[in-house]
Amino acid sequence: MKIELGEQLSQPALSIKAKVLEKDLPNHLEKSYEKIISYLNEQGEKPTGAPFIAYYNIDTENLRGNGTWDMEVGFPVSKVLSEKGEIKPAVILNGKTITFQTAQNVMRNKLRNPLQPLFI
C-alpha cells in the first residue's frame, strides 16, 4: 500500500445533500453521481477530481438498515456553477489529506488514477 500526506486547497464543487436511509445508500450514491455528471455534461464541464462523500450526522441508535444518514455527495469542479434542482454549488475546504493506493484499487481503476484522496 502506498500512502502520501498532502494539502488540499479550497475548491468549488457540485453536490447533493440529503437524509438517506442506510439501506438506500448504494442507490442514492449511484443516482446522485449520475445526476451531477449529467448536469456537468449539459454545461460542457467535467469533474476535476474524485467524487466525495461527507457524512454530517449518522443515526447510530438505529443502524440496522433503518438508520438515517445526513450526507452530501458530489464532485470537485473547475469553477462555481449555478444550481439546478437538488444539485447545489459547494466548496471543498482546504485541509490535510491522506492519499492511498491499494492493489484492490489498482485492479478496479485500471483506466483511472487509483489514488483516492481522503480529507482529515
Structure explained in plain terms:
There is one protein chain. It contains 2 helices and 7 strands. The strands form 2 sheets. A 4-stranded antiparallel sheet has the order 3-4-2-5, covered by helices on one side. The two termini are 19 Å apart. The protein is of the alpha+beta class. It has one domain (2-119): Multidrug-efflux Transporter 1 Regulator Bmrr, Chain A, CATH 3.20.80.10. The chain has helices at 25-42, 103-108, and strands spanning 2-8, 11-21, 52-58, 68-76, 88-92, 95-101, 116-119.
Shape: globular
Residues in β-strands, percent: 35-45%
Uncertain segments are: 106-120
The whole-angstrom Rg is 15 Å
CATH superfamily (homologous) name: Regulatory factor, effector binding domain
What is the count of distinct domains?
Answer: 1
The CATH class assignment is Alpha Beta
Main β sheet profile? 4 strands, antiparallel
Helix content: 10-25%
Distance between the termini: 19 Å
Strand order of the largest sheet: 3-4-2-5
Structural class determined from secondary elements: alpha+beta
Give me the count of strands: 7
Order of helices and strands: EEHEEEEHE
Stated plainly, the CATH topology is called: Multidrug-efflux Transporter 1 Regulator Bmrr, Chain A
User: Helical segment tally?
Assistant: 2
Mean pLDDT: 82
Instruction: Please state the second-level CATH architecture.
Output: Alpha-Beta Barrel
Main features:
single chain, alpha+beta, Multidrug-efflux Transporter 1 Regulator Bmrr, Chain A, 20% helix
How do the helices and strands line up, and which of them pair or pack?
Elements: E1 2-8, E2 11-21, H1 25-42, E3 52-58, E4 68-76, E5 88-92, E6 95-101, H2 103-108, E7 116-119
Antiparallel strand pairs: 1-6, 2-4, 2-5, 3-4, 6-7
